[in-house]
């Protein structure tokens, strides 16, 4: 932050098919407004506030009742967000490979 109270740096967000809902929206906003890099694979998508109905047989149905739209073009990222820098998401022997690659490869490049 500088004197204006706003964050003026660059963001790096790791994304993959497990990124959905509010995290998907966050990724979409970062990409749309070019305030950082999305590293990884396409997000799963999904934006909305679900409402749950319990049926007579005790099964539950979730219905999205609200969607969120961003900007004049009313983009909502419901079909997922593509990364700006593609990296395959891999966990090898319990080690998060994409995190390690990001720290080594992109931190200096984006600064």
Automatic annotation (TrEMBL):
**Domain of life, per lineage:** Bacteria
Gene Ontology MF: a single term:
serine-type peptidase activity
List, alphabetically, the InterPro entries matched: ClpP/crotonase-like_dom_sf (IPR029045), Tail-specific_protease (IPR005151)
SUPFAM superfamilies in the cross-refs: ClpP/crotonase (SSF52096)
Residue intervals of the Tail specific protease domain = 7-85
Q: What Pfam family is a match for this entry?
A: Peptidase_S41
One GO term of the biological process aspect: proteolysis
Q: What is this protein called?
A: Tail specific protease domain-containing protein
Q: What is the lineage of its organism?
A: Bacteria, Fusobacteriati, Fusobacteriota, Fusobacteriia, Fusobacteriales
């Amino acid at each position: 932050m500088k004197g204006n109270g706003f964050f003026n740096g660059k963001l790096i967000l790791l994304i993959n098919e497990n990124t959905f809902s509010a995290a998907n929206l966050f990724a979409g906003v970062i990409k749309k407004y070019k305030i950082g890099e999305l590293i990884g694979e396409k997000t799963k998508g999904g934006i909305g506030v679900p409402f749950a109905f319990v049926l007579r047989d005790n099964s539950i149905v979730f219905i999205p009742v609200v969607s969120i739209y961003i900007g004049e073009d009313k983009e909502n990222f419901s079909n997922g967000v593509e990364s700006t820098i593609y990296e395959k998401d891999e966990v090898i022997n319990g080690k998060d490979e994409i995190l390690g690659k990001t720290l080594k490869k992109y931190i200096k490049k984006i600064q």
